[in-house]
Amino acid sequence: MSVLVYTENWDGKFKKLSFELVSYAYGVASMIDTDVVAVSIGDVDDGELEKLGNYGAKKVISVNKEELKGLDSQAYAAVISEIAGREEAAVLVLSNNNTGKAVAPRLSVKLNAGVGAGVSKLPSSTDPFTVYKRVYSGNAYANIVIKSDIKILTLEQNSFEVNETGGNAEIEQMDYDLDESLVKTEIRDVSKQTGKLLLTDAEIVVSGGRGMKSPDNWQPLVELAELLGGATACSRPVSDEGWRPHEEHTGQTGKIIAPNLYIAVGISGATQHIAGVSSSKCIVAVNNDKDAPVFESAKYGIVGDAMKVLPGLIEAVKNTRTS
Amino acid sequence: MKILVCISNVPDTTTKIKFTGDNELDTTGIQWVINPWDELSLTRALELKDSNPGLIESVTVAHAGPASSEPTIRKALAIGADSAIRVNAEPLDAFFVAAQLEKVITEENFDIVLCGIESSDFNGSTVGGMLAEFLGYPSVSAVSGINIENEDIVIKREIDGGSELVSVPVPFVAIVQKGIAIEPRIAAMRGIMMARKKPIKVVEPADVNALTEVSSYEMPPEKEACKFIDPDNPEELIDILQNKEKLI
Q: B44-74 pLDDT, tens per residue?
């Protein structure tokens, strides 16, 4: 038996998300008294693969094939399900990011395994196997029982504490016999920003809404985000107006994020926006309307005009750095 | 080519969610709508049909749900879908729904199947991928654009920090998100009139077991009231975030 975790890589590297996943898998494995096996697909060197041992992986199986360079969910699911069979996986853990959302449902059908999608905590019980997840876009939570023999869990990003076990992993380079006819996705073009902190990875996010009044007013918001080592985001009207790129749109139909600190500036806090940020650990709101619904979700609030409050906050952060 | 759009019937986002007992949704006062991502898929399907009249012959919607969800199906027909199929069953879980949709698709041979990336009720993001695997079709997830030029279908998918243009052979499943269409298409009066005459085919469900079930619902934890800070004293907020919350 094992808990199998799929650890995606980004240009051959793992990131905090990968270590969260292995830590979570280790937590589940401890509950059912078994070991964690990690699966990596792509060109990742041994030094990088070994890092997973430090978070509780007993073994890391690496499949490196040219045909699997781009994500093809059908082919990836074939690889992972075969390894799950070989390792007698009782539970599979994937991220609830774009890749996990593409692959986990296919694994469900291949392995006849129920999915607990978007979990943020360890199972509350393993018999019956019960997980807790957000439903109705954050307006409620549900305890869901997975009845199948094999279970699949997809973990929300930034929801589980990274835990170093100090262990070592055995590395296995697997010469996987791929059925190439499964790879049907042809990648024609890639456009990607490199070196920029991704919104979904950021632990601090500073976000602007229509209360920023004009796209020309964004400089202090960007400056505050940079000072705090965070990323910038925006509300839907702002991205619809083209004031900010659509990748920054957070909310129900945009990005769902869970940073440690979310600072909402000039955002009224419509239900659809809050649905995308309600899992943030601490929400700070700046709005000139004291009755704005955003204050119902915020832990700290400042009633005031964004253009006056932002410079004050920047100054205050700078002072903490120099003193 | 025939397009199928899978639609889910969900409470409007602004609806106040309540439960009776601990595992039954209280449906009083709920306004039911087409799941927002499915509505965008339908909009894009109709745009593709409008701009490629020779190539795309029809747009059908499929739904697994009881008769009470027919108003939502009618809405999809009013927006412009040509016909609808309803699998007459309570949607037990994602696996069950995907298995029902598989049956519908294998019977009617659709070339392009569109599913919203998640539903706003269970937020599972799993039906589209499950359906693709049941069918043995390729699929593309996190799709933010579909374009057809000279019968060549190019799909844009979102990746971390950017996007890719990809292609897959038909038949395929596209699991779509924001960006696929800007605003959902709205039903015009003429569409509403025409929808009354459009066919909704009702099929009986396949015998499939759900793999998951909800044992109970809980409301989000109570939140303490917002602590307001004097706008003339931003230092206080920064001090709290640094020394009390230890976030910066």
A: 999 999 999 999 999 999 999 999 999 999 9
Q: What's the fold here for domain B2-221?
A: Rossmann fold (3.40.50)
Does the beta-carbon distance from B126 to A101 stay under 8 Å? yes
Interface of A with B in 157-196 (CB under 8 A): 184-194, 196
Cα B182 from Cα B197, distance rounded (Å):
29
Nearest C-alpha neighbor of B141 from the set A50, A129, A105: A105
Residue of chain B minimizing CA distance to A98: B142
Tell whether the model's pLDDT for residue B10 goes beyond 70. yes
| Domain extents in chain B | 2-221
A126 contacts chain B (CB < 8 A): no
Contact A185 B138 (CB under 8 A): yes
Q: Provide, rounded to the nearest whole percent, the portion of chain A with pLDDT above 90.
A: 95
Residue B106 has pLDDT above 90, yes or no: yes
The DSSP string of A50-107 is: HHGGGGTEEEEEEE--GGGSS--HHHHHHHHHHHHHHTTEEEEEEESSHHHHHHHHHH
Task: From the options 3.40.50.620, 3.30.390.50, 1.10.357.10, 3.10.100.10, give the CATH code of A2-182.
Answer: 3.40.50.620
- Selecting from A98, A271, A320 the residue whose C-beta is nearest the C-beta of B14 gives A271
Q: How far is CA A288 from CA A79, A241, B134, B236, in A?
A: 54, 21, 52, 18
The structure tokens listed for A155 are 């973990």
pLDDT at A34: 98
Q: Which residues in A lie closer than 8 A to residue B11 (C-beta atoms)? A: 136
For residues B109-138, average pLDDT? 96
Interaxial angle between packed helices A306-322 and A219-227, expressed in degrees from 0 to 180 and rounded to the nearest 10: 30
A204-322 is classed in which CATH architecture? 3-Layer(aba) Sandwich (3.40)
Residue B32 has which token pair? 């039911």
Query: By CB neighbour count within 10 A (0-12 exposed, 13-18 middle, 19+ buried), where does B182 fall?
Result: exposed
Indicate the domain borders of chain A.
2-182, 204-322
Residue of B31, B32, B134, B237 to mutate when probing chain A, most A C-beta within 10 A: B237
B positions 147-206 inside 8 Å of A (CB)? 154, 157-169, 172, 175, 177-179, 182
Nearest C-alpha in B relative to A300: B227
Between chains, do A74 and B133 touch, taking CB under 8 Å as contact? yes
pLDDT given at position A323: 65
The model's pLDDT over A244-260, given as tens digits with 9 standing for 90+, comes to 998 899 998 899 999 99
Q: Is A252 on the interface with B (CB under 8 A)?
A: yes
- E strands of A168-317, at which residues? 170-173, 186-192, 204-208, 231-234, 261-265, 282-287, 300-303
Chain A positions touching B217 (Cβ under 8 A) are 135, 140-143
- B130 vs A108, A191, A315: nearest CB: A108
The parts of chain A modelled with pLDDT lower than 70 are 323
